[in-house]
Amino acid sequence: MVFEDQQKKDEIDILVEMGQAEKSKEEDEALKQKAVTYVSFEELEDFKDDHLFNTNFDQFIKQDMQDRINDPEEWHAQFEGLDHLRKMSKFHKAKMVEWSAYFAPFLKASVDNLRSGISKDALMFTTEFLKDKGETTTESLVEFIKVVGPSILHKTVYEKAFISKEAKTSMMHAIATAPCSELLAFLLSDGCRCKNNNKSLMENSYTYVGEFFKQVGTSFVEPLASSEESDRKTLLLEVVRQLQVGIDSMPKIKKAATEALKLFKAKMDESKAIPFDKILHQ
């Protein structure tokens, strides 16, 4: 993973957030040096001498990540934890996918962190992890998306542009590589119907719903043709109703919802499972 020059500038800005004014000049300099020093993805080295890592990978993740969640104020430990994830993602991707549910809480906490550097690093890791995770979508990865996804979605409208930009990239990779029912569900609940009525978040979410139906196969929408009730069918009917609500909304949301409904219809037409007009009357 190659980090932009902006990354170092962002990390310097974080120093203000860390209460540097209360520390001595020596501590200031030490923390500043630690904050701006970042190992590139190419320079990352494997856990060669870590006995726990080499003998019990799942316990390593459980213990290492949980310890960091339990001490959320220890910002440098969180940076180190993200470095650990980057190492594991680079050298042990298959295991990372298998055990992704275990580090999901730590990553969610990092994405939600108010310190810009930690949040952006977490988003950049998520992008890299999802981009190269392979074709298999495991139960653990679905849980990862369920836990971390809503936090990524909310960061797409964050006030700092370098955070929102990274979140949008991460969200697109999540949709492209793990388009599961859980992802579609939180796009509706946390985005299209967001409780604080954030118009930008709603617009983004309708757009992501459209992107979702670009990515899924026709089998995803086929339950709509079944006479039997199922969680998937219920979710898809909920999507149709929500898109109709969006079309009756303000211009930007209407545009995004209209495009999403168009993409949904195209997927239904491709599946040939049931005429789209019949769905509108269910």
Write up this protein.
This protein is mostly helical. It has 2 domains: 1-42 and 49-178, no CATH class; 181-282, no CATH class. Helix content is 71%, strand content 0%. The protein is built from 15 helices and no strands. It has helices spanning 5-17, 25-36, 51-55, 57-69, 75-91, 93-98, 100-112, 116-131, 139-155, 161-177, 181-192, 199-215, 231-247, 251-271, 276-280. The longest helix has 21 residues, at 251-271. It is globular.
- The H-and-E topology, N to C, reads as HHHHHHHHHHHHHHH
* Fraction of residues in H or I helices: over 70%
Largest sheet geometry: none
Number of strands: 0
Taken together, the total number of domains comes to 2
The Cα radius of gyration reads 21 Å
Distance between the termini: 47 Å
- Low-confidence parts: 11-25, 27-36
Strand content: under 5%
Secondary structure: elements and pairs:
Elements: H1 5-17, H2 25-36, H3 51-55, H4 57-69, H5 75-91, H6 93-98, H7 100-112, H8 116-131, H9 139-155, H10 161-177, H11 181-192, H12 199-215, H13 231-247, H14 251-271, H15 276-280
Helix pairs in contact: 1-2, 4-7, 5-8, 7-8, 7-9, 8-10, 9-10, 9-11, 10-12, 11-12, 11-13, 12-14, 13-14
